[in-house]
Amino acid sequence: MNAQEHGTGTGGASALLQASRWKKWEFIFWALAFASPLVLGSHALIINEIAIVGLFAVSLDLILGYTGIVSLGHAAFFGMGAYSAALFAKHVMPDPTIGLLVGTTAATLLGALFSLTIMRGTDLTRLMVTLGAGLIMMELANKLDWLTGGADGLQGVTMGKLLGTFEFDLSGRTAAWYSLTVLLVCFVLARRLVHSPMGATFKAIRDNRLRAMAIGVPVSSRLALVYTVAAGMAGASGALLAQTGGFASLDLFEFHRSADVMLMLVIGGTGWLYGGLAGAIVFKLMQDLLSQITPQYWLFWLGLFLVVLVLVGRDRLLKPWTWRLPGRRS
Question: Which domain holds residue 76?
Fold first, then answer.
């Protein structure tokens, strides 16, 4: 590993510039995404859910795919963002955009605090620490029932009009466009970050932390930064869920939230931001379809798909179109 390979030389800078350029298929992808609530109006609610979990998956990919931090407690930030936004709407003001900022800020601060726990240790140590952090947040939300509603959840959350004009209706179109817009903004920021020289240092840390330290990369500060940014994005996705759903519960902190988003990255692939989006789309559509066909056994079929995906390999299973998506890392 040398400096040029990680974007500090002329060749590396040229590679970063090339990777940062938007491809034609990306514009088509986002155009279709924003058109989908209008074209598929009856499915606007699930489109909203896909946008929210897609943002959650992208946030996890920042730390897992680009820096190699394995986390089983990412739901801590998701739940923090949701509860902060819901409490703000219920007790302060129902403005969605300000509530989103509040939820994102709260999760970012929590991420900055928890980033101190992932500086040292092995992958197994970080797994246990991140899992413990998520469980701590869930228990706190349960015990502070006077504030959070405890096991009953935080009910009676009503949102005002978006930008003072657009009302959240039962069809879910406003919610879908709102979530898609936030997803796009966060995605552009994440894309800019990972294709910058700083993003190249993230990959250097992922590939070999000792060598990254040897060439002068401030590993601890880089890990703290990317963990904090990822936490803020996860908090934004949680805030969106609470705002568009009008409810926040302990379920947001539970382990299955972190496990689900990990499965999305298994499906879509890590180390490229569209992997989280692809995984979210496949996961949510399969969940919705299979739960309608076999309400009692949909988890079995989803699990079977994941087993086949791992055994056969994503590239071989999706070979007809994966060649069109450059920059993907399995």
Answer: 29-255
For 90-135, the three-class secondary structure string (H helix, E strand, C coil) is: HHCCCCHHHHHHHHHHHHHHHHHHHHHHHCCCCHHHHHHHHHHHHH
Residue 230, domain member (yes or no):
yes
Angle at 229 between CA 82 and CA 175, to 5 degrees: 40
* Number of structural domains in the chain: 1
pLDDT tens for 281-328 read 988 888 888 777 777 777 777 777 777 777 776 655 555 444 444 444
Q: Which of 255, 262, 227, 254 is nearest to 117 (CA)?
A: 227
Residue 293 maps to a domain: no
Cα–Cα dist 217/3, whole Å: 10
Q: Which residue's structure tokens are 């559509």?
A: 285
- The pTM for the full model equals 0.85
Beta bridge partners of 248: 154
| Among the listed residues 74, 50, 90, the one whose alpha carbon sits nearest the alpha carbon of residue 233 | 74
Considering the domain boundaries, does residue 237 fall inside one? yes
DSSP secondary structure of 33-59? HHHHHHHTGGGHHHHHHHHHHHHHHHH
Three-state DSSP class for residue 67: coil
Q: Is residue 266 part of a domain?
A: no
Contacts of 259 (CB under 8 A, 6+ apart): 72
d(CA 223, CA 321): 34
